[in-house]
Design brief:
The protein is an alpha/beta fold and 431 residues long. The protein folds into 3 domains: 160 residues, FAD/NAD(P)-binding domain (3-Layer(bba) Sandwich), CATH 3.50.50; 101 residues, Polyamine Oxidase, Chain A, domain 2, CATH 3.90.660.50; 88 residues, Alpha-Beta Complex (Polyamine Oxidase, Chain A, domain 2), CATH 3.90.660. The strands form 5 sheets. A 7-stranded mixed sheet has the order 8-7-16-17-18-15-19, with helices on both faces. A 5-stranded parallel sheet has the order 10-2-1-14-20, with helices on one face. A 3-stranded antiparallel sheet has the order 5-9-6. The longest helix is centred in the C-terminal third of the chain and has 19 residues. It is globular. It starts with a strand and ends in a 5-residue tail after the last helix. The chain binds flavin-adenine dinucleotide (FAD). The site of flavin-adenine dinucleotide has 38 residues, from helix 1, strand 15, strand 19 and helix 13.
C-alpha cells in the first residue's frame, strides 16, 4: 500500500486522515506536541478541577465539512445545537437577534425587524443588501475591506456596529476596516443562505478535546490510522521511495506522499527539498484571542452566551460553574499583565450585571497570540493551494486558500481537499 504521512495533528491533519481512511489509505500522523488538536485544545486546570479550553470555540450549522467528520451519535453526544439563530447582546438592556425556526429564509427578515437597535428603515436596508447577496446581484468585492464594501451597499454606521461588526469580529477575528470583503461575502452566503440549518449555533457540550478531538481520534485509530506524538518534523529530503522525513529526535520516517497540515509560520521552520509555492507565507499576519476563565462566587447569566456592545469584551459564555470571557482581535492586550486584564474583565462584567461583586475564586488567562491569521486583502496572496510545486507534497491548514477565514471549518475543508489530491495522485494511471 502507498504510504502517506500527515504532518500536524490539528483539525486539518485529522480531517485529512479521516478522508484518506474513507478512501482506503491508512496514514500516519506526526504531531510535534503530546496531544492532538492544535489550536482546538484544552488542558487540565487544578484550580478549576476541570479541563479548560484554550479559548471557547463555537461552530455553526454551515460547518458542513466539519460535521461530516462525525457520526450522528458523536454529534448528539458532543454538541449542543441552538436550532434558531439566537444571539443576545448586552448593554445592560438586552437586544436579541432571534430568527424563528421556521419559514426560512423569511425568518431572517423577521429577525432583522425584531432586532431592537435597528429602525424599520435600517432593517429594510439590511434586508435589501442580504437579498442582493443571496441572489448573486452583488459583484465580487475583490481588494476591498468590509467597511468600504458595506457602506457602498447602503449599510449605515448603526447597521455596521450592531449587526455586521459582531459577525466580522466573531468569524474573522479582525475589524471591518481590515477584513477582506470577498471572504466576508462568502461567510454571509454560507451562514445565511445555504440552508435553514446553517444559522444553527453549535456549542461543544464538553471541553474541546473531549467534544471535537477525541471522537476524530477514535474514528482514525479504529479505521487503522496511526498517530505519533512528540514527533516534531524538522526536514524533508527527497529519496527514491518518495521522501525521508527527519524528526527532531533523529528518527527518520519515509513516505511516498506528505500532507503538511501545519500553520504557515510552522511551515517556514521546516527545511524543504524545494520551494512549495510562489509566495512564502511570511506575509501572513496573525491576531490574538484573549480568553479569561473565571470562577466567581455568584453570576447571573441564563443564556449559553451573550455578546457585549461598546465594550472591549466581545463574548461571555456560561460554562455552568464558571464564566469564559473572550476578547477577539486582542493584540492591544498582548502585553498587559494578568492583574490589568482581570480588572478590565471584572469591571465589564459588573457594568453588564453579570456579576454582582468582584469576589473572584479562581481565574485563568490565556493569550493565543497567533490564534488566527488576519484575513485582510493582502492575505489572499499568501494563502497557498493544497497542490504544491513539489509533486507528492500537499498543504492543509486553516491558512490555505479555502476562501474561508481561519476556522475549524476552513481547517476541515483544507484536510479534505488535500486528501482528495493524494487520492487523485495515487490513482493516476502511471503511479
Ligand atoms: C482561542 C481561539 C478561539 C477560536 N475560536 C474559534 C471558533 O469559535 N470557531 C472556529 O471555527 N474556529 C475558532 N478558532 C480557530 C481554530 O481553532 C483554528 O482555525 C483551527 O484549530 C486550525 O486548525 P489547523 O489544523 O489548521 O492548525 P493547528 O490547530 O495549528 O494544527 C497544526 C498542528 O501542527 C502541529 N505542528 C506544527 N509544527 C509541526 C512540526 N514541525 N512537526 C509536527 N507537527 C507540527 C501543531 O502542534 C498542531 O497540532 C479559534 C482559535 C483560537 C486559538
Amino acid at each position: 500500500m502507498k504510504k502517506t504521512v500527515i504532518i500536524g495533528g490539528g483539525v486539518a491533519g485529522l480531517s485529512a486522515a479521516v478522508h484518506l481512511l474513507r478512501k482506503g489509505i491508512k496514514p500516519l500522523i506526526l504531531e510535534s506536541t503530546k496531544k492532538a488538536g492544535g489550536r482546538t485544545t484544552s488542558f487540565f486546570d487544578p484550580d478549576f478541577n476541570s479541563y479548560l479550553d484554550n479559548g471557547q470555540h463555537i461552530l455553526m450549522g454551515c460547518y458542513k465539512e466539519t460535521l461530516s467528520l462525525y457520526t450522528q451519535n458523536q454529534i448528539d453526544e458532543n454538541f449542543h445545537l441552538q436550532k434558531s439563530l439566537r444571539i443576545i447582546y448586552s448593554e445592560k438592556k438586552r437586544f436579541e437577534l432571534h430568527a424563528p425556526e421556521y419559514f426560512y429564509p423569511l425568518n431572517l427578515a423577521i429577525a432583522l425587524f425584531r432586532y431592537k437597535p435597528l429602525s424599520f428603515i435600517d432593517a429594510v436596508a439590511a434586508g435589501i443588501f442580504m437579498k442582493r447577496v443571496f441572489l448573486n446581484l452583488v459583484k465580487n468585492p475583490s481588494g476591498k475591506n468590509v467597511l468600504v464594501w458595506l457602506k457602498e451597499h447602503g449599510q449605515n454606521n448603526k447597521l455596521i456596529t450592531y449587526l455586521w461588526e459582531p459577525l466580522i469580529i466573531g468569524a474573522m477575528n479582525t475589524t471591518p476596516e481590515k477584513a477582506d470583503a470577498a471572504i466576508f461575502k462568502r461567510i454571509i452566503k454560507e451562514i445565511f443562505f445555504t440552508s435553514n440549518f446553517s444559522t444553527t449555533i453549535i456549542i461543544p457540550k464538553h471541553d474541546l478535546l473531549t467534544s471535537l478531538i477525541l471522537p476524530l481520534l477514535d474514528t482514525i485509530i479504529s479505521a487503522g490510522g496511526q498517530i505519533s506524538y512528540s514527533a516534531q518534523v524538522t526536514k524533508l529530503i527527497k529519496s527514491d521511495r518518495g521522501f525521508d522525513i527527519l524528526l527532531k529526535d533523529g528518527q527518520v520516517v519515509n513516505s511516498e506522499s506528505i500532507i503538511m497540515a501545519v500553520p504557515g509560520h510552522a511551515l517556514e521552520k521546516i527545511e524543504l527539498p524545494e520551494k512549495l509555492h510562489s509566495e512564502n507565507t511570511r506575509g501572513l499576519t496573525y491576531s490574538t484571542i484573549l480568553s479569561v476563565h473565571l470562577k466567581v462566587r455568584e453570576f447571573h447569566l441564563k443564556e449559553d452566551f451573550v455578546g457585549f456592545h461598546n465594550s472591549p469584551v466581545h463574548w461571555v459564555f456560561n460554562k455552568g460553574s464558571y464564566l469564559s470571557v473572550v476578547i477577539s482581535d486582542a493584540d492591544d492586550y498582548k502585553e498587559n499583565d494578568d492583574k490589568e486584564i482581570l480588572n478590565l474583565i471584572i469591571s465589564e462584567l459588573l457594568k453588564n450585571d453579570i456579576i454582582v461583586d468582584n469576589n473572584v475564586l479562581s481565574y485563568r488567562i490565556i493569550k493565543e497570540k497567533r490564534a488566527t491569521f488576519v484575513p485582510d486583502c493582502n492575505s489572499l496572496r499568501y494563502r497557498a493551494s493544497s497542490k504544491t510545486l513539489s509533486p507528492g507534497i500537499y498543504l492543509a491548514g486553516d491558512w490555505t486558500d479555502t476562501g474561508l477565514p481561519a476556522t475549524i471549518e476552513g481547517a476541515a475543508l483544507s484536510g479534505r481537499i488535500a486528501a482528495d489530491a493524494i487520492y487523485e495522485q495515487f490513482n493516476q494511471p502511471n503511479t
